[in-house]
Structures are given as structure tokens and as C-alpha cells.
């Protein structure tokens, strides 16, 4: 009984496609293309939505205690989502100045937003276009029906012609009805990821940082250069195997990278061996 009902339904659908003509096939093809876009987009968005921002920040905090920003960058490098990439750019403050870090975060945001929204306009166009194509098919079918009736007046022929004409509208509406919830779901996933990105920007608004720097020569000049720079809170000489200067700074006020501050005034190279950032 069930098998017969299924076979009957399949036969009806096949007959509808045969009767609907070329426009029915066109609507079906763009509908299939829309489903493929939706499936690919949902898989990608669900993949990047798996990572939670609190988990990423917990890794950053633990790593910061172990080896500073460099260690944090290494530990979150395996997490491939927009949030981790934006946090990774924020961790480079000190190695880069405030403007460079902000530009890097903005570039990451633009690239990731493009990936998330790619294909969304095409899907929206298909949803809007499918019913109109169906309507065009219906209008053409009714026009053909009345053209035939002009030669031979027959109620049966008229009813059959209108039935065939309405097939394209049914198919067009079916495509839109199937794709619209998928489009809404995709937008919801994108909005969720955007909320995470906004939260990541707030959570990486570091309050202060402490860096250890190794200067090859002219340490006193390097300390003087750092003390004169904007955003530097405190600078002192240290006796460490890996570093000889420790500097405290405000990331939001750092106009130049720490290495550039030393290079411009003292014309000597330096290396940041550790940078610890706090909120």
C-alpha cells in the first residue's frame, strides 16, 4: 500500500515535469544549485562555530603565564576560525604598534566576513527569482491555452492547459519554500559568529603589557628611547640570560612598536623575547 502510494507520487511528479516544459527544468536546476550552496555554507559555518571564545581566551591566559604572547600564538594556531585569527592579531601588540594591530584585525575581519557571506546573495536571488520564473511559465502556458482555444473551443482542453500552466508556479514556489528556511538558518549562524567576533574585540582590549627585550648594544640609549615614547609606563634594566630591558606599556597608546622605538633613536637592533598582556 505504501509502496503503491510512493510510486504513484513519483509518477505524478515525473508527469508534472514532463508537462511543465523547459521553464520547469530551469527552476529545478537553479533550485538544486541553491541547495548545494546552502549545504556547503552550512557545513562551513557549523565548522567555524564549534570554537567557543571563552575556550580560546582560557588557552591565551594559560599560555600567557607560560611563555607570553608568542606561546599563546602557538597554542591557538591550531584553532581555525575567525575569532582565533582576530585574537592572534591582537596578541601582536608590542611587536607591532596600535595602528598596525588594528589594521591587521580589520583585514582578518574583512576576509572572514567575505568567506562567511560568499554565496548568500546568490541564494537570496534564487529564492526571489524562482517564483517569478514560475509565474512567467504560467502566463506563457495560459497564453498558449487561449491561443489553442481560439482554434478549437473545448472545456477539457482549457482545463488541461491551465493545469499544465500552473505547474511552473508550483515548482517555483516549492523551490522558494525549501530554500528560504535554509537562508534564514545561514544568516543566524553568521550573526552568531559576528557576535563572537565583537566579543573577541572587547576581550582583547588589553589594559597593559609587560615585555622583556634583548638589545645587542647601547642599552642606556634604548632605555632612554623607551622612556620618551608614548604608551610606555615604566622601563628598567634587568639582568636576565635572555633579556636586558623590561618595559611596561599601555597597548592602546603604543604609537610605535617597541623594536622601532629603539631602532629609530639608537640605530640598534632589538628583540622582544617575551610579551605578557593583561586585560
Please specify the SSE layout and strand pairing.
Blueprint: H1 2-20, H2 22-48, H3 53-76, H4 82-90, H5 98-117, H6 120-151, H7 155-203, E1 208-215, H8 219-228, E2 232-237, E3 245-249, H9 258-266, E4 270-278
Keywords:
alpha+beta; 9 helices; 10% strand; rod-shaped
β-strand number? 4
Helical stretch count?
9
Task: Describe the oligomeric state of these chains in a short phrase.
Answer: single chain
Distance between the termini: 68 Å
Q: Give the domain tally.
A: 2
Structure commentary:
The chain has helices spanning 2-20, 22-48, 53-76, 82-90, 98-117, 120-151, 155-203, 219-228, 258-266, and strands spanning 208-215, 232-237, 245-249, 270-278. It is of the alpha+beta class and 279 residues long. It folds into two domains: 1-205, no CATH class; 208-278, Alpha-Beta Plaits. The chain has a four-stranded antiparallel β-sheet. A hairpin with a 7-residue loop joins strand 2 and strand 3 (245-249). The longest helix is centred in the middle third of the chain and has 49 residues, at 155-203. The termini are far apart. The mean pLDDT is 83. It comes from Methanobrevibacter curvatus. Belongs to the exbB/tolQ family. Its main location: membrane. It is found in: Cell membrane; Membrane.
Amino acid at each position: 500500500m505504501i509502496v503503491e502510494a510512493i510510486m504513484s507520487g513519483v509518477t505524478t511528479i515525473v508527469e508534472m515535469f514532463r508537462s511543465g516544459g523547459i521553464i520547469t527544468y530551469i527552476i529545478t536546476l537553479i533550485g538544486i544549485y541553491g541547495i548545494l550552496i546552502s549545504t556547503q555554507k552550512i557545513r562551513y559555518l557549523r565548522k567555524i562555530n564549534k570554537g567557543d571564545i571563552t575556550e580560546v581566551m582560557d588557552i591565551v591566559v594559560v599560555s600567557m603565564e607560560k611563555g607570553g604572547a608568542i606561546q599563546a600564538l602557538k597554542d591557538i594556531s591550531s584553532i581555525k576560525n575567525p575569532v582565533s585569527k582576530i585574537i592572534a592579531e591582537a596578541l601582536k601588540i608590542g611587536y607591532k604598534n596600535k595602528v598596525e594591530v588594528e589594521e591587521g584585525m580589520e583585514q582578518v575581519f574583512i576576509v572572514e566576513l567575505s568567506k562567511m557571506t560568499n554565496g548568500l546573495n546568490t541564494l537570496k536571488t534564487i529564492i526571489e527569482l524562482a517564483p517569478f520564473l514560475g509565474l512567467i511559465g504560467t502566463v506563457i502556458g495560459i497564453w498558449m491555452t487561449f491561443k489553442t482555444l481560439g482554434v478549437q473551443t473545448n472545456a477539457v482542453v482549457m482545463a488541461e492547459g491551465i493545469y499544465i500552466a500552473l505547474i511552473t508556479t508550483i515548482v517555483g514556489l516549492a523551490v522558494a519554500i525549501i530554500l528560504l528556511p535554509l537562508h534564514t538558518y545561514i544568516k543566524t549562524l553568521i550573526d552568531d559568529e559576528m557576535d563572537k567576533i565583537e566579543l573577541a574585540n572587547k576581550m582583547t582590549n588589553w589594559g597593559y603589557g609587560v615585555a622583556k627585550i634583548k638589545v645587542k648594544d647601547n642599552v642606556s640609549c634604548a632605555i632612554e628611547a623607551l622612556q620618551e615614547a608614548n604608551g610606555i609606563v615604566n622601563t628598567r634594566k634587568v639582568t636576565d640570560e635572555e633579556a636586558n630591558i623590561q618595559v611596561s606599556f599601555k597597548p592602546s597608546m603604543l604609537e610605535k612598536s617597541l623594536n622601532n622605538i629603539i631602532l629609530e633613536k639608537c640605530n640598534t637592533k632589538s628583540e622582544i623575547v617575551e610579551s605578557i598582556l593583561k586585560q
